[in-house]
Amino acid sequence: MSIATLALPDMTRLSGSGIDFVDEPLFENLLTQKTGSGQIKEIIAKSKNKEALTVEETAVLLNADEPELIEQIFDTARQLKKDVYGNRIVFFAPIYVGNLCMNDCEYCGFRRSNTEQVRRTLSVDELQTQIRRMLAMGHKRTMAVFGEHRNYGPEYIADTVREIYRVEYKHPKSGSISSMRRVNINAAPLSHEGYKIVKNAGIGTYQVFQETYHHATYRRIHPQDTRKGNFMWRLDSPARSIESGCDDVGLGALFGLANWKFEVLSLVAHAAHLMKHYNVGPHTISFPRIRPASGVKIEEVAKNDVADADFLRMIAILRLSVPYTGLIVTAREPAAIRDAALGFGVSQVDAGTSIEIGGYREPGTVQQQALNREQFHIGDERPLDEMIRHLLNNKHIPSFCTACYRLGRTGEVFMEYAKPGFIQNMCTPNALTTLQEYLSDFASPETKAAGEQLLREEIAKLPEGKHKDSILDRIKRIAETDERDLYF
Ligand code: SAM
Ligand code: SF4
User: Fold this and answer.
1) What percent of the chain shows pLDDT beyond 90?
2) Nearest protein Cα to ligand 1, atom 14
3) Pocket residues: Cβ below 6 A from ligand 1
4) Could you tell me which of 314, 382, 392 has the C-alpha nearest to residue 346?
5) pLDDT-derived band at 365, boundaries 50, 70, 90
6) Does the beta carbon of 107 lie inside 6 Å of ligand 2?
């Protein structure tokens, strides 16, 4: 893996849709409007038809303060989650590759002026070891995370992704071989050429968070003499990535920096912008809340802290506004919040997470968080097996499925599949087969018992016919042999 110290791309060539669509006066005005409960109910009815909501309609939901209306929003979110995603929850874990960074984002432990941070980039050997340990836990999908630095150019990111795909883990008992089946990246904005390079390495989702869509706040916390100081270059990056072939994009905002309702409107505007210009919405949206980080004065940075009740309400509103976009809640959040959000909005979680560079330890080793080696403190330290068991006991199906991306069901094509409800015909079976893989190879005895019980219940719900026979056949082959990775 070569660390090429390249000239950084110039930040002038934007996408064909490179305009600033964040209409602050409009959004702020919308958030002051009071609407009658009749209109709110009409909007809720529209979202029940799985139609994406406009910025104006989303503002009406955000302004709805009466407990009865808020309850209706939660109920609708629960229903939509069930209709579009079923009871599956997809699992991933991040791999932090390097924490060198040229930027100075006030909220981040990796920022260049933070002298407390121990700086490190994984060597190839270390990367392989980390991935093997993640595979040994049962992970199949990862998100590779990078600071922004000359050493982490697109070729380096692409080499890292290829290296991750190459790592194999042979299970000591079943003899089955596993490897990462989908490698997503969270990396600083690239040029069109850069996106083509990482796409060629086979990345899944390209994730980039705007952090805040509020211009003055963005300027205040991202110094203008850093690359990240360029608001437009970042705002336009998902569009450039789609134009370059990376059509699964993940948007996000870091909550706590500016008014949360403003950020939600901006995320919905961003999704609508991509839909209008490329006929494809974001694959996922993330909404991390700021966590304590080394050298970060959290009270000074998180001036707009989002209370737990508002945070959950925000997730429910996003579920209504963008019904076909996956919502991710990471281990930044405490267990109780994550558990609550699973039922009405969230479709992807990480677990057993370490965000320290080289932080995945030998199984059985106790992992202590140490802020000077991490980007921030995580809130949910449950191991993967415990989290899976918790989900099973609450009748969610943990899924390690990566089929869509591998069968080319991404971007615009993915939206076509998602819309008519095909997802449940493919996703639920793939969730069941990947759950069986987990139970055969990685689960503790208690988790295995809980998983087998849920599998029986889910199989009983499948309509009789050829498709069910084929699902049963695959589950049996996985349970009884070393065959793996049998997907629809
Ligand atoms: N350097 C790349 C960038 O800035 O896009 C990679 C991202 S950074 C390692 C991943 C994300 O972590 C950031 O986009 C930010 O939203 C989030 N983050 C940074 N500091 C955080 C904190 N203190 N608490 C929670 N999330 C944080
Ligand atoms: Fe660097 Fe990204 Fe952290 Fe900003 S958020 S300091 S760009 S790693």
Assistant:
1) 82
2) 209
3) 107-108, 110, 145-148, 186-188, 208-209, 211, 254, 288, 290-291, 293, 296, 332, 375-376
4) 314
5) low
6) no
Classify 185 as helix, strand or coil. Answer: strand
Measure 106 CA to ligand 1 centroid, in angstroms.
Answer: 10
Q: Is 146 in the pocket of ligand 2 (CB under 6 A)?
A: no
Which residues fall within 8 angstroms of residue 242, CB to CB, at 6 or more apart?
A: 15, 249, 274, 278, 280, 411
Helices (H), 64-211: 67-80, 124-137, 154-166, 192-200
What per-residue confidence (pLDDT) applies to 384?
96
Strands 284-286 and 249-252, sheet pairing: parallel
Residue 418 scores a pLDDT above 70: no
* pLDDT single digits (tens) 48-99: 999 999 999 999 999 999 999 999 999 999 999 988 888 999 999 999 999 9
Nearest ligand, CA 301:
1
What does the alpha-carbon distance between residue 368 and residue 321 come to, in Å, rounded to a whole number? 39
Q: Is 136 in the pocket of ligand 2 (CB under 6 A)?
A: no
Q: What is the pLDDT of residue 64?
A: 94
The rounded radius of gyration (Å) of the Cα atoms in the chain is: 22
**Max alpha carbon distance in the chain (Å)?**
63
pLDDT for the residue numbered 1: 55
Please answer whether residues 238 and 208 qualify as being in contact, where contact means their C-beta atoms are separated by less than 8 angstroms: yes
How far, in Å, from the CA of 262 to the mean position of ligand 1? 19
| pLDDT of the residue at 115 | 94
Cβ of 148 less than 6 Å from ligand 2:
yes
Tokens of 406: 């591998």
Q: Vertex 370, ends 364 and 371: CA angle to 5°? A: 150
What is the predicted pLDDT for the residue at 367? 58
| Bridge partners, 145 (sequence order) | 96, 186
pLDDT reading at 326 higher than 60: yes
Per-residue model confidence (pLDDT) at position 409: 81
Structural element, H or E, at residue 285: strand 284-286
Cα–ligand 2 centroid distance for 347 (angstroms): 26
User: Residue 47's closest CA among 87, 75, 66, 89?
Assistant: 75
Which ligand is located closest to the Cα atom of residue 251?
1
Q: What does residue 251 show for φ and ψ, rounded to 5 degrees?
A: -95, 170
Q: Tally helices (H) and strands (E) across the chain.
A: 20, 11
CA 392/CA 265 separation, integer angstroms: 34
Domain ranges of the chain: 80-418, 423-480
Look up the CATH number of domain 80-418. 3.20.20.70
Q: What is the DSSP string of 232-257?
A: HHHHTHHHHHHHTT---EEEEB-BTS
**Cβ–Cβ < 8 Å for 260, 315:** no
Kindly state the percentage of the chain with pLDDT values over 70.
94
* Pocket of ligand 2 contains residue 236 by CB under 6 Å: no
